[in-house]
Structure formats: C-alpha cells, structure tokens
Amino acid sequence: MRKISIVCLSLLMLNLNACAKKPKGTDSYSNNEYDTGEMMEFHGSNTVSDGESERGIAKNTYYFGYDTYDLTEQDTIELMNYAKKLVANPNSHIRIEGHTDERGSREYNVALGERRAKAITNILLMKGVAPKQISIVSYGKEKPASFGHDESSWSLNRRGVLANEGV
Amino acid sequence: MQKKRNTSDTFINNLKIHKIFFLLFCLLSLNCKASIRTLIIDGGQVDGIPVAVVPFAQIFESNTEKAQLPDISDIIRKDLQTSGQFKNFAKESLRQHPCKQSEVQYPYWQNLGVNDLVIGRIEKTGENRYTIYFELLDVLKQKAGSLNPPLAGMKFENIQANQFRALAHHISDVIFQKLIGVRGIFSTRIAYVSVIQQGKTFQRSLEVADYDGVNPKTLFRSNYPIMSPTWSPDGKKIAFVSFEKERSSIMIADTLTGRVERLTQFPGINSAPNFSPDGRTLAIVLSKDGSPKIYTIDLNQRKISQITNGLGIDTEPFFAHDGRSIVFTSDRGGKPQIYRVTLGSGKIERITFQGSYNAKPSLTPDGKNLVTLHRSAEGLFCIAVHNLANGSAKMLTQTGLNDSPSLAPNGMMVLYGAQDAGHGVLGAVSLDGRLKIRLPAREGNIQEPAWSPFTAKIS
Hints:
The structure holds two protein chains of two kinds. By secondary structure, chain A is of the alpha+beta class. Chain A is built from five helices and four strands. In chain A, β2 (94-99), α4 and β3 form a beta-alpha-beta unit. By secondary structure, chain B is mainly beta. Mean pLDDT of chain B is 88; it is low at 1-39. The A-B interface holds A 95, 97, 102-108, 110-112, 114-115, 135-140, 142-143, 147, 149 and B 225, 227-228, 243, 246-248, 268-269, 271-272, 285, 287, 291-292, 313, 315-316, 329, 331, 336, 357, 359-360, 373, 375, 381, 401, 403-404, 419, 422, 448.
C-alpha cells in the first residue's frame, strides 16, 4: 500500500511539473528544490523569437480578422504583460497605429483602424498604463504593409502596430 | 516635409512643353522617377448626338505661329467625346472645312450623318492678341432653300495664346448647354492625391489639374498620407487631411496662393471635411469624445458644434445642396449605410436600402439621386447610384476595388478611384451608364479625386 502511495505521489508530482505553465523568457527552474537531473527533461527553450529583451516590446504588430477589432487571447496576454513594462516606466511613451486592408471607403477604414488601435489601447489602460503614455493614430488603408489584392496581402494589412516614441 | 508652392502661374501654357507633352508622357511611363505627373482622361466611342467639329480656320500669316497655338477644335472635339453624350467624327474624315455659315454645304454634312456642326475661325489682331469666332449650326433640321440661324454664335476678343485652351473648354460648355440643356463641366478642375514610391518612402502630393488632367499643379507635398480633398463652393479653397507627425489634422489650402493652414488637430481622428453650400461651415469628423462623430465648424468664428451622437462610426458627411441636411456614412445599424441628419431638428433617417455596405455618399444637385461606394452581392466594391424616391439602386461599375466616388457639379458623371495593373488610377462613368472611361496604367498611384464646383467663365 505504501509503495503504491509513493508511486502515485511521485507520478502526481511529475504530472504537476509537466502541467505547470511558465511565462516565456524567464528561467522557471532556478528554484533549488528542483535542481536534479530529471529537470533537464522540462527545460524548455523559446521556439518563438520575440526579441523582447532587444526592443522592450512583446511584439509590435497584432493582426485582425476582416471587419473585426478583436484580439486573440494570446495577443491579449502579451499586451497585458507589455503593459507592466509601461507601468514600470511612467515616462515611456508609445504610439499605437491602426490599419485596415484596402477594401472599402478610405474614411470608414480610418474609423475601423482606430477601433483596432483602441482595442489594443484598452488592454494597456486596463492594466494601469497612464493615458498620457499612449497616442493613437489610424491610417486606415493608407499605409499597407503588403501590396497584393488578395487575402494573403489583406490579412497582413489588418493590423495594429506599436511604436516606441521614447521618453 | 511640407513644401508650399507658388501657384500664381495658373495658366502656364508653354506651348513647347505642350507640344512634346505627349512624348514626355510616353517616356515617363517607362521612367520610375517621373518628375512631371500628368493624367489623361481618354474618352471612348459612344453613340450619342452626332456632332462634327471642324478645324478652326487660322486667318493670319506665319505658319510657325499657327503650329504653336493650341488647336481649339481638337480640345472641343475631345471635350465632347469625354462627356459620352455625342457621336464623334474624326478630324481626318472631314473633307470640307467651312469657317463661317455662308461656306457650309449642308448636303455634305447631312450625308455624313451629322446633326450639329461646330465651325470657327481665328483672326490675329495684334501681338499675341486674337479674335476667335465660333458657330454651332443645326444640320439635321436645315432644309434647302431657307437658312436657319445658328444655334449659337459667339465672338471672343483680345484672347492671348495662353488662354486658347480655357477658351476652347468654354466653347465646349456653350455647345453642351445648348444641345443637352445642362451646364457643361469642361471648365472645371479636379483635385487628387498622387502617391509615388521612392525607395522605402512614399512621396505624396495633393494636386489640382483641369478636369481632363492637363496642367497639373502641386498644392501640398508630404511623406505622410494625404486624404479626402474637398473643394469650397467658390473653388478657392481645398480642405484635406494630413498626417504630419503621425497624427491626423484638417488643413485648408488656398488654390490661388498655395498657402496652407491647419484648421483642427484634436486628439484622435480629424477627417472627412465637406463645405456647406454657402462656404461658411465645414462638416468634419472628430473622435475626440469617443467614437467618430459628425461635427460642424464655423469657419469665421472657429466654433464647433456636434451634430451626431452614439457609439457607432459616423463619417463622410456631405451637405445637401440646400444646406439644411447632411448625408453621412454610419454603421449604427450594424454595417455602413447612408443616413441623413436634418440640421436644426437633429432628426436622423436611413436612406440607403440596397446592399450590405454603402459609404462615401454624395447627392446630385437636384437632390434626387445618391452616389455611393457600394459592395455588390459578390463582395465587389463598386460605384452605385440610388434613386432616393423609390429606393432602387443601379451599379455603375462592375470590376470592384473601387473607392472615392466624386460627382461632377452637373451631376452627370462620377470620377472614382480604381485599380489597374497594380496602380491606383482614376475612372469616370456617367450616371446614365453611357460612358465608361478606362484610364491607362502608369507609374505611381492616383487616388481620391475631388471634382471642383463650376468656376467663373471667361467673359
């Protein structure tokens, strides 16, 4: 009975270790408690290069579906994390640009682009970033990133872009 | 960087440049670093009233002088062809060249199938001073024996060489008014935005040209986007949107002096300007208080009034011609449609009921028809005209990827933005569907046309 309990407990501990989600880019196994050879199995490395340490931004471009201004859950989490950096540096300033694909009226697209920029802004504000740290501009369809006339280009143009404006 | 340009040389017409203009255009089509940007509107062959325009006789010596003057009949012929209302006769096919009514042999023209004949002559009265006569004659109703008076006949004195082009356009206006009964647009101008890629930057400029694209002048240059040019009713100002320093602002350019001033720069969107018919008010879009809403600004007192409310997007205001209401694009009902707000009462009603997307509204001068950017059932963005009385709509274009429709001041034609071979170009179509103009693909992009109001005539 005790052997089984120990096995079960060990299995349970291994399970818990496997299921734990660790934030990107941090060393989650600096805790000495887990400093054993078995930990080599769980030492992950980043598969996505986000340059966070270089630019200080989680990612600077976020993409949207046609006629929408919703952010994915992952993008929302990234932005919430980025907000912490802005809160920690109250003198820093960013500009958020909203863009659309080429279809439809130019002025309505300026308004749509602003919705996208504001969706990003709202996440940052919700996490305590001061409004004066953020400026918003919508370029509508005036500054495409990709110049084709099909969905592969359009999807690259429906975006919000974060630009550092320094202090 | 913004560069102001002196536009006082409004009618620069260096004849040598004009003569090699076509050659330059061909060369520039191959040259990526185009420094002179011109667009040409070429009319198509359309059945309409058969009108023959005879080359005007030049009643003076000096063949070099004759060769250097603009050909008035060529300009008139092209104007009439562009309107889509006339059947054209090629200059080379005309075997007789009368220059006054007494010289006209009517049977010849009747055999050609001509309904109306345009003839004229140019006399030299001094150094760079000319007198031009023209007559519009009814061929169809001319019976042997009697002589009907001309439908129109005019004499213009003291005309200089650099006024020939404008005079030709004026004569086209007279002919059009006489035969169609509607004011012609041949003396109007167009404003548009030009975008040329230079390496990694885009050079953008706001330009003004004759309605046919001749004589382009630059009013404003920037590396940032320029949007939504719109004319004041007296043709003296153009309001537009600039994005200098990464924020939008509404600017006003003086078309005569070239001077540009900033009008608004509120936080958020400053956009979609449109002048009231009396020129005293500018309708604009601001998002400073939340979502984009329609405001008006009194241009004298610079006082702002909010016109629409609510959470949706309201944009693209367009004043009705009596100044009492504004039509605009709104997605308050879910998708962009056109609504009308009555100033004063604030009453709002939806006015488009065809299609799932209507935007960029403009009203014909009689207020009966509304032109919009419209998404077809197949999802193509085309230009449509809506009959406001019965709610029906007709698509004027079919190929999609259109935007920015702009009505001619006589309500008969629409200029719009189109794509051709990867370039932004302008297209033109008549509201009665008779005329569709295809424009040549060229380097760079032309977009956002704005048709000027009627301008003062030459007296």
